[in-house]
Each structure stands twice: as C-alpha cells, then as structure tokens.
Amino acid sequence: MLDRAVADTTAKNTKNEPTRRVHFRGAGFVPASSRYGGWIGLGLVIAIWQAAGSAGLVNALFLPTPSAIVRAIYQLAVSGALWQHVSASLLRICVGWLLGTAAGVAVGFAIGLSRLARSVGITFISALFPIPKIALLPLLILWLGIGEEPKIATIALGVFFSTAISVYSGVDAVPRNLIRMAQSFNVPFATIVRKVIWPGALPAILAGFRITASVALLLVVSAEMIGAQYGIGAFVLQAGNLMQTDQLLAGVVILSVFGLAVGKVIGWLEMRLLHWR
C-alpha cells in the first residue's frame, strides 16, 4: 500500500510539472556544411593577400598579388597559349584516367570476387603500387617512343593501382549477409553483382575516383615537366626557369580550378548515384 501511495504521488507531481523539451541527439556525424562558408573564407584570404602585396609587405617577385595572377591568366587567354596548354593536359588526363579506371575497375572486381585473382592480383599490386610511376617514364619512352603514349601510360598506371585497390576494398566492404540472402533465393551470380555488390561498393569506388583524379593531375604535371612542349606542367616549368612567378602561379591556379571542377563533378555523381544513403 505504501509503495502504491508513493507511486501515485510521484505520478501526480510528474503530471503537474511543465513539459521539458529534450534536444534531439541523433544527428551527429551528419556531413553538412555551410554553403558559402568556404567561399567567404577564400575571399578573405585573397583580400588579405592582395592588401599585403599592394602595401609592399610582400615582395612581388616571391609572391605576386592575386590581381597580377589574374592579369597573367587574361594575357595567356588572349594570346591563345592558355588554351593550347590546357587542351594538351586535358587530353592526356582524360585518356589516361579512362584507360586506368577501366582496367582498375575490372581487376578490382576480379580480385574481390575470385579467390585465384585475389591470390595473384594482391601480390602484384602490393609489389608494384609503391613504385613512383613517374620514375617509369624514361622506360616507357624507350618502349613507346617519344610522344603522347608514354605520358598517357604513366597516368594510366598511376590511376590503375589506386582504382583497383579502392574497388576491391569496396567489394570486401559489402555486407556478406546481403550476398548470402540473395544466394539463398537462387539469384544468378551476375544479378548479385549488379544489384547487390555494385551498389554496395559504389561509395568506395567514387571515393577512389576523387583520389585517382588528383593522382592523374600530379602525374600529368610531372610528365610534362620531364618531356613535353605543351601542357600546364611544361608551362609552369618554363615560367619557373624564367622567374616569371605571376605566370607560374597562374598555372597553379588553373590546376586548382581543374581540381575544384573534378570535385564538383564527382560530388554530383555521388548525389545522383548514392541518393539511397
């Protein structure tokens, strides 16, 4: 009786108390960001940089002002040299990236789905992946001759290994209970790969694409610095040798814009292909 009386008293007191709102705590680790925060921060950095250069606090030879860099880009665009260098680099990047990605996706899925391919493929990838691909450029020139082929092959090799690793890692990350459930319903192997494994591995594959795009950009600049007449890498090297730092940084800005554009494209692909997450 005493316990029931205590319970009734507690219930009445609770009922009389005002309702207190509790904050929702399940929204942690949500990948949300400010829409304009990054651009505002970038604008502030550029404004401070321009002010420091205009006030003479920074030597223009070592660090030209943003206005000088924009002027150099405009002069390159008017003269036509900008499009000549950019088109040469884009051609090499696109062809090398597509070849390396196609081969990497095929080998990555083979390693993820086949025991024989895994035992052989991982050994070769582990042995060859740490080798700097730009170090193979002289050998590729001996094999393929002087021209576009060695540069494209260098990019394709660098993209291939990173893509293969991201693909078979994504295949391994697919929950095995989903695959077993599909097998228990006698779903054909090709359908399991298309409907279960491919969607499950797609986040890792797209994340790998972000990495391989940067790898392709680094390799094309390095290859053009070693042996090319046209291209962003060759242009940056020439500007550096002549101490034309405004044009050198103009090339760097162009590379940065290209990286931003690739990131936007991959982000759009993630929104379209991974809308189910």
UniProtKB/TrEMBL annotation:
Main subcellular location: membrane
Alphabetic keyword roster: Cell membrane, Membrane, Transmembrane, Transmembrane helix, Transport
Keyword Transport listed: yes
SUPFAM superfamilies given in the database record: MetI-like
TM region(s), chain numbering: 39-61, 90-113, 120-146, 152-171, 215-236, 248-269
UniProt domain ABC transmembrane type-1: residue ranges: 86-266
UniProt entry tagged with the keyword Methyltransferase: no
Protein localization: Cell membrane
CDD domains: TM_PBP2 (cd06261)
Membrane topology summary: Multi-pass membrane protein
Similarity-based family: Belongs to the binding-protein-dependent transport system permease family.
Identification of the protein by name: ABC transporter permease
Lineage: Bacteria, Pseudomonadati, Pseudomonadota, Alphaproteobacteria, Hyphomicrobiales
